Amino acid sequence: MKQFLHVSDIGDLGKALEEAKQVKATPFAWQNLGKNKTIILIFFNNSLRTRLSSQKAALNLGMNPIVLNINGDSWKLETQLGVVMDGDKSEHLREAIPVIGSYCDIIGVRSFAGLKDKDFDYNETILNQFIEYSGRPVISLESGTVHPCQAFADLLTIEEHKKTKRPKVVMTWAPHPKALPQAVPNSFAEWMNAADVDFVITQPEGYELDPRFVGNAKVEYDQIKALEGADFVYAKNWSSVSHYGQVLNVDRSWTVGAKQMAVTNNAFFMHCLPVRRNMIVADEVIDSPQSLVIPEAANRVVSAQVVMKRMLESL
Ligand code: CP
Q: How far does the centroid of ligand 1 lie from the alpha carbon of residue 86, in Å?
């Protein structure tokens, strides 16, 4: 595996899930695979889960992880091509990326959508430069449009908890005071469309996701109708795509609370975290026995480890 952005990069989903279960059961079985190998994890943005789960996954495989916080520990990096570098950015990605590549075997990159220039974000301008110039396999740790390690962990969590062969999974938009990227809902939609689930997206008007990610999902604007009979409720905020990066409303009637959960099939609640309580989800839901947010986060180690393992196997 040379890059990990999309569900297509993982190949057969059934095999990937079986491998994830093996990795989860025996996390240290591949300690020799990563011996004397280095992964550099580059963070342009904040993180708790991705930073720690990626390091843990690398350590489980016997690799040496190095974490670099761009703009914090390193020089400020210019990401746009063809600009006159007369501002506060001291180094260009064109030099920094091959230098980083020369120090490691695998690279992971977190580079959130800036939500100002849709083309820059949706062309994966930063991640694609890492793919082009590093000479190394590259993992998106949430980039302009996708968060595949999260979606893989989400799918594994659904697989572990489902009670029917083809569960109903509903992804619902929920309010948030700040503009958030679409990477998590994009990837979740992409992976659910590829999985054996009945997948529904519900959101207010104006929050439609890019059709490339919506795919064949059913879209329902009435949240309660969408949630009827759901086995899994996946809550997430995202900013508008059509009014790129804007917060169009913070309607708290969309907060996932007892009213929403009451129409489901005693659904499990999921969220990628971090989550704003009583904006996205009511305390009574996230604190209930049906909440999977902690096992879901724990599965981030497993998804990252499967991806790194496959990259090590193809070096
Ligand atoms: N879910 C997730 O990616 O969490 P962090 O932003 O804390 O890494």
A: 33
- The answer to whether 201 and 171 have CB atoms below 8 angstroms apart is yes
Query: Is the entire prediction scored with pTM above 0.90?
Result: yes
Round to whole Å and give the CA distance between 53 and 58. 9
Whether the CB of 273 sits within 6 Å of ligand 1: yes
Rounded CA gap, 204 and 175, in Å?
Answer: 10
Residues 6+ apart with CB under 8 A from 230: 168, 169, 170, 200, 263, 264, 265, 267
Query: What is the distance between the alpha carbons of residues 134 and 127, in angstroms, rounded to a whole number?
Result: 10
Digit-coded pLDDT (tens) for 196-222: 999 999 999 999 999 999 999 999 999
Which residues fall within 8 angstroms of residue 289, CB to CB, at 6 or more apart? Answer: none
pLDDT over 90 percentage in the chain? 98
- Pocket perturbation via mutation, ligand 1, pick of 42, 46, 50 by most ligand atoms within 8 A of CB: 50
